[in-house]
Amino acid sequence: MKIIIDNVPFDFDLACKVLKLKGGDSPFEELNSFWNEIVPIDFAEISLLPNLEQRRIAIKYLGIDDIVSQVNPKLISEETISKETTWINETGVEETIKFDDTYRLFSVNENVLLKGKDEEVNKYNTNKQYFVKFKDTSTDREYMIWVDIASVYNTNHNKQLNRWNTEKAFEEGNITAIDCIAWTIKTTLPTHNIRTIIRQGDCVLLKPISGNTEGEERHLTSKEYRELLKFES
């Protein structure tokens, strides 16, 4: 038996564990008799689901706060940028808004994420994964994005560090949360050919200086993000 959640089919038992994340009363009469006995799925179980869409929905139902509490992350970097942007308010008048944007970079032990996959091997796993946590400037909702810390380092320090030696990135140069949030934006605009960055939620627009817009795809650097982001909402 399948249960459809957000247009994605789940096996019955798995669906019950995902639905239990929402809390409250049973969503279906058929679940009433055993609803209180259902144990909600946790992040370790979610990370092992082979279906990407099922993982996405389960993570959405679990929520950022519960994910963070379950993976026991370590704060690596926290930085606040003071920003200024202009928009049209509800009365149709243009106004300038000043606000602070805080970004936090966390590390998580990989054996926590892979809990239960191969416990005998995994207990010796000392590798780390990294995510950056931030708020949407217009809704105050919190988001987290996983980042490849070696790629972040290479982008901002013009070096080639492999992903199996990420600790060296922190030894040789400071990686900040701003480095990471900038890295999440990709462009084909060559370096030194960006005039302005405009961001509205997940939509990022980059205005070029000249017509040369087709370079190799790359990640934005921290310097570009700090200096060229002019409007955000």
Spell out the blueprint of helices and strands.
Layout: E1 2-5, E2 8-11, H1 12-19, H2 43-47, H3 52-62, H4 64-71, E3 74-88, E4 94-109, H5 110-113, H6 119-122, E5 128-135, E6 142-147, H7 149-157, H8 167-172, H9 177-183, E7 186-187, E8 194-200, E9 203-208, E10 218-219, H10 222-228, E11 229-232
Please tally the helical runs, counting DSSP H or I stretches of 4 or more residues: 10
Query: How would you state the average pLDDT, rounded?
Result: 83
Structural class: alpha+beta
Shape, principal axes of CA atoms: globular
Extract low-pLDDT stretches.
none
Gap from first CA to last CA = 44 Å
Q: What Rg is obtained from the alpha carbons, in whole angstroms?
A: 21 Å
How much of the sequence is in beta strands?
Answer: 25-35%
Question: How would you sum up the major sheet?
Answer: 4 strands, antiparallel
Order of helices and strands: EEHHHHEEHHEEHHHEEEEHE
Kindly state the number of beta strands: 11
Total domains, how many?
Answer: 2
Task: Please bin the fraction of helical residues.
Answer: 25-40%
Widest beta sheet: strand line-up: 3-4-5-6
Features:
32% strand, 2 domains, four-stranded antiparallel sheet, 11 strands, three-stranded mixed sheet
Structure in words:
The protein is of the alpha+beta class. It has 10 helices and 11 strands. The protein has 2 domains: 2-62, no CATH class; 71-183, no CATH class. It has helices at residues 12-19, 43-47, 52-62, 64-71, 110-113, 119-122, 149-157, 167-172, 177-183, 222-228, and strands at 2-5, 8-11, 74-88, 94-109, 128-135, 142-147, 186-187, 194-200, 203-208, 218-219, 229-232. A 4-stranded antiparallel β-sheet has the order 3-4-5-6. Strands 9-8-11 form a 3-stranded mixed β-sheet. A hairpin with a 5-residue loop joins strand 3 and strand 4. The longest helix is centred in the first third of the chain and has 11 residues, at 52-62.
